[in-house]
Amino acid sequence: MLTNKEIQIKMRLVLAAIFVGCLAFKSCLAFPQPLHIAHSPSSSLKVLKSKVKLVPAQNTDKDPVYGILSLVETSEGVYIQGKILGLEPGKHGFHVHAIGDLGNDCKSAGGHFNPEERDHGQPQNEADRHVGDLGNIISPEDDFTSVNILDTLVTLQKGQANDINGRAFVVHATEDDLGLGGNPESLKTGNAGKRLACGIVEPIIQ
Ligand SMILES: [Cu+2]
Ligand SMILES: [Zn+2]
């Protein structure tokens, strides 16, 4: 005959075995699920997303600047969100440049992405700006810089004239004057100064 204590121990062992078995079974079930979703017909409705890893330019005489950006195409435009570390407090010009090349301290990224050959301008002025003109990001004292932009001119759609995939984001040392500086350079670069960090827009394959 089993004592009460022995029965209790056996019951616990059985429950533990069931619990472990359940976990194993669930994990077996959980793995194929994402594969199934990925191959389902609804994948034709997938959201376009891209990412950018900002790496510091050398020879800037400033702290190195790092960052991560996430881009999502929506019916309202492209949301650009992220975090940047190492910037001095204040405004910093923030653009998409034409060439996805980070060489030569970000200078190989070329000028602002400008497929329609317009003057440099402010982001809100969609009819008269470079496609890459995203204005300024604002760095607080003693904290990372948050990026939170919705832009209706850039796109992540392949084959579109304003597709920014494969091009480069650049973060500048000083404020972009948004074309209002009253000199020729203002209508070209916004006088945003040195390039502190840059990163290529890479589509996320889903
Ligand atoms: Cu720039
Ligand atoms: Zn520009």
In total, the number of strands is 8
Helix content: 10-25%
Side by side, the strands of the main sheet go 5-4-7-8-1-2-3-6
- Enumerate how many helices there are, as a single number: 2
Main pleated sheet: 8 strands, antiparallel
State Rg: 25 Å
Give a written overview of the molecule.
- This protein is an alpha+beta fold.
- The protein has helices spanning 4-30, 32-38, and strands at 49-56, 66-74, 77-85, 90-97, 133-139, 145-151, 168-172, 195-203.
- Strands 5-4-7-8-1-2-3-6 form an eight-stranded antiparallel sheet, with no helix packed on it.
- The termini are far apart.
- The structure holds copper (II) ion (CU) and zinc ion (ZN).
- Residues 95, 112, 120, 130, 132-133, 190 line the site of zinc ion (ZN).
Highlighted features:
binds copper (II) ion; binds zinc ion; 30% strand; 2 domains; alpha+beta; Immunoglobulin-like; 206 residues
In short:
This protein has 206 residues and is of the alpha+beta class.
Which helices and strands appear, and what pairs or packs with what?
Blueprint: H1 4-30, H2 32-38, E1 49-56, E2 66-74, E3 77-85, E4 90-97, E5 133-139, E6 145-151, E7 168-172, E8 195-203
The structure holds copper (II) ion (CU) and zinc ion.
Zinc ion (ZN) binds next to loops.
